[in-house]
Design a protein that fits this description.
Elements: H1 3-17, E1 18-24, H2 31-38, E2 45-49, H3 56-62, E3 66-69, H4 75-85, E4 90-95, E5 98-100, H5 102-109, E6 118-128, E7 131-132, E8 142-148, E9 153-154, E10 163-164, E11 170-183, H6 186-206, H7 213-230, H8 237-267
Parallel strand pairs: 1-2, 1-4, 2-3, 6-11
Antiparallel strand pairs: 4-8, 5-11, 6-7, 6-8, 9-10
Helix pairs in contact: 6-8, 7-8
Length: 269
């Protein structure tokens, strides 16, 4: 078969089998880049939007995505909502600021997707203000993002959600990259850090975890040393230092917020 016919066949096969699910809120500045990178691999893109006040919904509809407008119920719950609405069982789950490069497009197009208990692990290239971060916490990222919804789903965690896999699942690494445009400014990074620290503290509090002064003060120092020194974050220059320091700050804040929540609850008794 001629190469161009093979390519058309693979494209047809993939668009018939894979759905993409993305959760959004106020992502108009980045979502078009993400959706454009997906045009080659699927015709079914499901957007679960939780109250955007910018042009996110309009941009997604213009690019022929199926948009579900809903409230924020947590990362895992909203992702599962999109998965249930997808046309196909094979789900590629991305965030709004994650595009796929040409190498990953080709890897996906070449999949046969015959084993429901196989999941696909993908390498991340994380960017800080458009600089690719090669080391430290962000430099060695792999995440499973393609799976069959009959066998795999997200748990209902409000933050730091995880996939639930069947026993004996087969994990296959794909060539190519997810391009993660994490933050566009230092201010955005700080705001995200505080937001996730509060959400994780609430998760800990709901699970009954108690504040720990040892972890609050020593864990941040350990996190900085681990990512900046042992994982070579210093090789990313100024950005590597900022990321390691912010990771330490996040670690400190989540335990501080947990302590504040616990004290507030105890004062009500």
């Amino acid at each position: 078969m001629p190469k161009f016919l093979t390519g058309l066949f693979l494209l047809f096969l993939c668009t018939m089998e894979i759905s993409v699910v993305i959760i959004t809120k106020n992502e108009a500045h980045i979502i078009a880049k993400t959706l454009q990178s997906l045009q080659a691999v699927t015709s079914d893109i499901v957007i679960v939007d939780s109250g955007s006040t910018d042009d996110t919904v309009a941009v997604c509809k213009k690019m022929n995505a199926n948009v579900i407008e809903t409230v924020w119920a947590g990362y895992g719950i909203n992702k599962n909502m999109g998965i249930e609405a997808a046309k196909h069982d094979w789900i590629l789950n991305l965030d709004a600021d994650e595009a796929i490069d040409a190498g990953l497009q080709q890897s996906i197009l070449q999949l046969t997707l015959t084993n429901d208990e196989e999941v696909f692990d993908m390498r991340f290239k994380n960017f800080f203000c458009n600089k690719w971060i090669r080391f430290g916490e962000w430099g060695f990222d792999w995440h499973i993002r393609l799976f069959n919804r009959k066998k795999v789903k997200w748990n209902n965690a409000a933050v730091h959600e995880n996939l639930i896999f069947p026993a004996g699942v087969k994990i296959t690494k794909l060539k190519g990259n997810i391009l993660h445009y994490t933050v566009q400014s230092r201010e955005e990074y700080d705001a995200k850090t505080d937001h996730y620290a509060r959400m994780n503290a609430k998760k800990y509090f709901t699970a009954g975890r108690k504040p720990n002064s040892f972890k609050q003060y020593l864990s941040p120092a350990f996190a900085f040393i681990q990512h900046y020194i042992f994982r070579l974050g210093f090789l990313d220059g100024r950005e590597g230092f900022i990321i390691a320091k912010t990771t330490a700050r996040y670690t400190f804040l989540k335990y501080r917020y947990l302590k504040e929540m616990t004290n507030a609850a105890n004062n009500k008794i």
